[in-house]
Design a protein that fits this description.
The complex is a heterodimer of chains A (about 675) and B (about 100).
Chain A: E1 3-7, E2 10-14, E3 26-34, H1 40-48, E4 52-56, E5 63-71, E6 74-80, H2 92-104, E7 108-114, H3 118-129, E8 135-140, H4 142-147, E9 150-152, H5 154-161, E10 164-167, H6 176-188, H7 202-215, H8 225-233, H9 237-246, H10 249-260, H11 263-284, E11 285-287, H12 292-303, H13 308-350, H14 356-393, H15 395-409, H16 417-422, H17 427-432, H18 440-449, H19 456-470, H20 474-499, E12 508-510, H21 520-554, H22 564-571, H23 573-578, H24 583-591, H25 598-606, H26 611-621, H27 624-635, H28 641-651, H29 655-679
Parallel strand pairs in A: 3-6, 3-7, 7-8, 8-10
Antiparallel strand pairs in A: 1-2, 4-5, 5-6, 9-11
Helix pairs in contact in A: 3-11, 5-11, 7-8, 7-10, 12-13, 13-14, 14-21, 14-25, 19-20, 19-27, 21-25, 22-24, 24-25, 27-29, 28-29
Chain B: H1 2-11, H2 17-24, H3 28-40, E1 44-47, H4 64-70, E2 77-80, H5 82-92
Antiparallel strand pairs in B: 1-2
Helix pairs in contact in B: 1-5
Classes of the chains: A alpha/beta (about 675), B mainly alpha (about 100).
């Protein structure tokens, strides 16, 4: 130990520990270490008060603070080491800190740690322990830890670490006196302390022995052989350069060979420190039920349970649909019966003298289409709002977690389900959202599979038809068809995974963040962004679609049965026959490629029915098996033109999106035919 | 323990923090520290749902990537780097290669 003796002639440094009587005082050197933001400066300031001096470390631009305090007849020289996370040679601060401890050999090192973040802070402690210096742990921010529901058993921590621990709240001047007492006790302790060090693996001990054999007798003064060997194994840049100068070329070469074969040992050394940290924290830290982490853990016990989690997810989805319909339907009916019909009546009156085709286009086409769009918007606002809340509270990552096993079976990570989940709101942002997927191959697969997730328009049409043909069992039918989409998604994904080259293993992990209350502003922003996107991208397409469909259904001579669309429809009628569907329904299906929402409009136009009349018309023109076939086909139908555009953009080619169109067409009609041919014998 | 963690990421059998923490018998907080350490040493790299925003016809304000980020769920994802894969192949798998 070194002490400075103040005499009238100046300061001299003495190596032996001596106690001087009379006016001379014992000077004990204490270094304060710790990570940034643990309150180290606060502890230093509380200990030294105004008796401090600020300068720079010799030859560095890093600030150096020194101070003094008196306690129990001794004078304590405090040196505030730069804040750092470890003692590697990654930064000047780390080098300064460890050089001081090694070369200056302080009597005590105080490591300030944040009690609320022990797992983060104890790594530095584990490294300082390897320097074999007398240590005191200042366990600061105990109040913050308690607020976060953490209870640190100080005695248990002391016992586990074999080091003195002093609980503190330095900002409130609590624990300062106890810290001084602890510093005094450790500095004057005559017997060596025995901290519990991280375990050394067998591999490490073997390499350590071999390295020591090369460096023995060549270590500069004040460094310990074990510590230098440890740093060489860890690949410490400065220690490596130091030893390169110390050793002759043959020994250096031998040492290099030993070290190059031992790269994994460095990983093992760091790993043993984390194991040590885990043991320390387990022995001394308890979380109360009220802590946020515990609240998240309690909820996750259900939301990530293999069975309950899936049921909760299905339940959430059903709730979104049911609540959406429950809120949307009365508003929608009110809109149609009130606003839209009034607008149609007003337009009819205004265009009384206009050509019939103009009046028909405006009243039965455009105004009706705007009305349906408004109705869809009402549903979408409630869907988007509910999805936004789920995203904001952190539930989406649980969905990714629950779907991870399923996604892995088709060669994707659970994270790929995050953009897919958005498909329940709209497939366009779902495809665009695949940008969060890490690899090209996985991204392409996600782009191609995302359209299997039914959008609100598809679910609404299914729910509409299911309510006509299956009454109270309609929700069951809707859920069953959504699950069918997932089955087809899974099978298609498996085939795609086999077909695409460069199969990759999912070497990726993802965190589940803490749940938190939804931020209404964030939710509002998300909803507004999606509504705006829908209006801008989908609105014009729907209006154009309606105009084109109306024109094709009107021309050449105003009679729908002899119109262009009817001629086309009759040409593909054999396909409809296989599904028990009239040509009007097949045409409506094909129109959904341009706009999903256009199905209802097209059906109404081609069947000559109003909103209310459509229900009874459909009920009489189809049998339940045919309706089921239609529902299955439209749920699996090819992506709409907006989604196709997004697919082209994200896959940066036409090849894959066009393949996807053809694939979806074949699968949807194939499934529709199969379902009708089987269901007509059952229903 | 860090080697085990690298191995688990490499094998790809578990991919979420809770599963990994459970397998290693550690807390998720400690797992995060270990992941930060592996990142610092270059064995893994982190993605944060980032997007380069380049060559994109969609305005960032309406893009789903920004909405996934804006949702406030800072979902950190980690992938093995080439160094990480090499370490697993050379020193941990002892013969069982991953590519």
């Amino acid at each position: 130990m070194s002490i400075e003796k103040n005499t009238s002639s100046g300061t001299i440094l003495e190596k032996d520990k001596q106690v001087y009587s009379g006016s001379d005082q014992q000077l004990i050197t204490v270094a304060i270490a710790g990570q940034p933001n643990v309150g180290k400066s606060t502890v230093f300031n509380r200990l030294t008060g105004l008796r401090q001096h600020v300068g720079n470390w010799p030859g560095k631009t890093v600030e150096c603070k020194k101070g003094k305090f008196n306690y129990n007849g001794g004078t304590y020289r405090m040196v505030d080491l730069p804040g750092n996370y470890s003692l590697t040679a990654n930064s000047p601060e780390e080098v300064i800190a460890r050089d001081f401890v090694i070369k200056e050999q302080p009597d005590v090192v105080v490591v300030v740690v944040n009690a609320a973040a022990l797992e983060r802070n104890l790594y530095l402690v584990s490294e300082i322990l390897s320097l074999k210096v007398p240590l005191v742990i200042a366990l600061n921010m105990i109040d913050v830890a308690e607020e976060e529901g953490l209870k640190v058993d100080v005695k248990a921590l002391e016992s586990a670490m074999g080091v003195k621990v002093v609980p503190m709240v330095a900002s409130k001047n609590k624990g300062i006196h106890e810290l001084k007492a602890a510093i005094n006790e450790i500095a004057r302790a005559s017997d060596g302390h025995e901290p519990n060090l991280p375990e050394k693996s067998t591999g490490y001990k073997e390499v350590l022995t071999r390295v020591r054999a090369q460096i023995t007798g060549n270590i500069p003064v004040s460094y310990s052989e074990d510590w230098v060997a440890l740093k060489l194994i860890e690949g410490d840049r400065i220690i490596t350069e130091m030893m390169k100068k110390q050793l002759d070329s043959s020994k250096w070469k031998l040492l290099q060979n030993i070290l190059s074969d031992s790269e994994n040992i460095a990983l093992g050394i760091a790993g043993s420190r984390y194991k040590w940290i885990g043991n320390m924290v387990k022995s001394a830290v308890k979380r109360s039920e009220k802590s946020q982490i515990n609240r998240t853990a309690r909820i996750d016990r259900h939301t990530t349970h293999p069975v309950r989690g899936i049921l909760i997810m299905i339940g959430v989805l059903i709730s979104i649909i049911v609540v959406g319909m429950g809120i949307g339907m009365p508003v929608a009916l009110g809109l149609m019966n009130g606003t839209v019909h009034s607008a149609q009546a007003a337009a009819t009156s205004l265009l009384a003298n206009a050509p019939v085709w103009i009046s028909g286009l405006v009243v039965d086409g455009i105004i009706f289409a705007i009305g349906v769009l408004l109705v869809i918007l009402v549903f979408l606002i409630s869907y988007f709002a509910m999805y936004a809340v789920l995203e904001d509270i952190g539930y989406m990552s649980r969905v990714a977690y629950m779907m991870d096993n399923f996604m892995r079976r088709i060669g994707l990570h659970g994270k790929s389900f995050l953009p897919m989940f958005t498909g329940f709101a709209c497939n366009i942002p779902a495809v665009i959202g695949t940008r969060v997927v890490e690899t090209e191959r996985s991204r392409l697969m996600t782009v191609l599979l995302a359209p299997f997730i039914p959008c609100p328009a598809q679910i609404m049409i299914t729910a509409f038809l299911a309510s006509i043909f299956f009454g109270a069992a309609a929700p069951v039918v809707v859920i069953a068809l959504i699950l069918l989409n997932f089955v087809v998604l899974g099978l298609s994904g498996k085939m795609l995974n086999r077909a695409l080259p460069d199969r990759e293993q999912m070497r990726m992990i993802m965190e589940l963040p803490l749940y938190h209350r939804p931020n209404l502003r964030t939710v509002g922003t998300l909803v507004w962004q999606r509504i705006k996107q829908f209006i801008i991208k989908v609105g014009p397409v729907v209006l154009i679609t309606v105009t084109v469909v109306w024109a094709l259904a009107y021309f050449p001579n105003g009679d729908i049965q002899t119109s262009f669309i009817a001629r086309f429809g009759r040409a593909i009628a054999p396909l409809g026959n296989l599904m028990g569907l009239k040509w009007e329904m097949i045409v409506a299906l094909l129109v959904s490629f341009v706009s999903r929402e256009g199905i209802i409009i097209t059906m109404g136009m081609l069947l000559g029915a109003t909103e209310e009349g459509l229900v009874s018309t459909l009920g009489t023109m189809m049998v339940p098996a045919a309706a089921l076939s239609f529902m299955v086909t439209q749920m699996l139908f090819m992506p709409c033109v907006g989604t196709l555009g997004a697919m082209v953009e994200e896959s940066r080619s036409w090849k894959w999106p066009l393949f996807s169109l053809a694939y979806f067409l074949v699968v949807s009609f194939g499934m529709g035919i199969l379902v009708y041919q089987v269901a007509r014998f059952i229903l | 323990m860090l080697g085990e963690l690298l191995q688990m990421i490499a094998e790809g059998e578990v991919s979420m923090y809770p599963s990994i923490a459970h397998r290693l018998n550690i807390s998720e907080g400690l797992l995060e520290e270990m992941l930060d350490h592996l990142k610092h040493d270059g064995y893994i790299s982190q993605t944060n749902n980032e997007c380069s925003g380049k060559g994109c016809a969609v305005s960032c304000k309406t893009c789903s990537v920004s909405t996934i980020k804006a949702a406030g769920s800072k979902i950190r994802t980690w992938v093995l780097t080439d160094k990480g894969i090499k370490t697993v192949n050379t020193h941990i798998n002892y013969g069982k290669q991953i590519s």
